Amino acid sequence: MRHGACELSRSLLLVMALLGGCVAAQADTAQRVSQIEWNGQGAEFGGLSGLLIGPDGQSLIAVSDKGLLITAALQRDADGTLRGVVEQERHRLISPAGQVMFDKDADAESLAWQGDRLLISLERRNAIWAYDALGGTPVEVPVPQGITALQFNSGVEAMANLPDGTVLAIPERSGALDRPFPVFRLRDGVWDSDLQIPREPPYLPTAADIGPDGRLYVLERDFTGLGFRVQVRSFAIGDQITDMQRVLSPTTDMDNAEGMDIWRDPAGQLRMTIISDDNFLFLQRTLLTEYVLNAAD
């Protein structure tokens, strides 16, 4: 799932992007407060690619790239520091046709709310399904030709929802290293592709969220051949996507980070929780990493 340019070429492209002014010269706005490993049970556990945190920060919903939807309770200290995860329920994804989905047929990548409906994007199918209940039978969300025509295994990788019910869908690839990522927007039942996010080679988006501060946060990852680098940028969103800010500079200790949620804790602080996809490999881990953000509200 990575492009074929050599590491030197990718480094040169990144330098060019920096010189071109694509990257804001700002300090990070994220301070790490905890990181824990989630050791789930059974061979089915792993590959978690999408994440939603409950409004109070005490629970989560995660989905795997083999079609498993998991709910869990989060254990925290009095100051909110993460200490553990206790799984509550598992549900296999059901297709709109009522079929139980397994393995690559259910390559789920991201989660988002649309009102009370849970949206799940499926990368290999270039599809979005809407569930009224966890474990229920969904309906297929009609998507535009721009999504159905996305290249194989590089479909909608990230989704986010605005308070008014608007849904944003971002594919994994833009089609060229110097081309911005398109942002497909579903608003009042109509799709458009008027928005875009500037690309910073070699990073590719893996998750997105609209924070309580109204900004669009985008988690991005690069596979170096030896490991993963992860960064987070945020943007103001309106008629256009502007005002890029550096939230988290590239870091290499979060494994294959693929899911993210931005939420406000009981103390009023913005928090960013990120989950990693272990690819079902014993050398990788399912990590939950959490930051406090000092972004202005």
Automatic annotation (TrEMBL):
Pfam families: Phytase-like
PROSITE patterns reported for this sequence: PROKAR_LIPOPROTEIN
Phytase-like domain location: 44-280
UniProtKB keywords: Signal
Domain of life assignment: Bacteria
Segment forming the signal sequence: 1-27
Alphabetical list of InterPro entries matching this protein: Phytase-like_dom, UCP031900
Name assigned to this protein: Phytase-like domain-containing protein
Organism: Pontivivens marinum
